[in-house]
Amino acid sequence: MQFDPVFAESDLILNGIMLTIVLSASAIVLGCTLAVLLVALRTLAGRWAGYVVDAYVELMRNTPFLIQLFMIFFGLPLLGIRMSGVEAALLTMTLNLGAYSTEIIRAGVDSIHRSQFEAGVSLALSRRQVFQYVVLQPAFARVWPALSSQFVLMMLASSICSFISVQELSGAAAIVEQRTFRSFETYIIVTAVYLVMALSLKVFLLWLGRKLFPQVSGLARLDSKAEAA
User: 138 near 116, Cβ under 8 Å?
Assistant: First the structure.
């Protein structure tokens, strides 16, 4: 095995790593924000809003990510909406992650005991305030591990964006392979990089969850013990 030709293209691989990180971080922030808005809409806006949100979630969760990517990149120009490959990749990742995160956060909201809603109302909080302060934070604490796993999966799924010539890590690897003809060596390195990135993101999200929800996580555990008793 000869790794020197692959290492000679390290600048291209580093650029691919940076684009993967930027795409993944942006999709996580935007997708999670979208999910919170959709859960709030489904919870506060009535039955018909819930139907619309459910239709979106089922559509995105039951169709392949690659097809969604192609529909946005090749389909939207037919409607006069043109975007670059990176923009199409970010939009697809955001919509896909938003759908999965919506279902995860909804499960967390549904797990909150009805008494907490009633307690918030008794304090003269509005429905929005009850949802934001009484329901959403404990719900996030309960589903944070599931959300973290979904974030890592989306980072790995960004490799599919190479199909529309986005030069993230997998796209960069394909170019390096074409230039060097060292397929096995190239993908050994890329596999190692993805492994390091996934584990690093997992550790970061675990640390972030502990920082964001220390007290809320403790309350959630106490609530679970009380319900079990």
Answer: yes
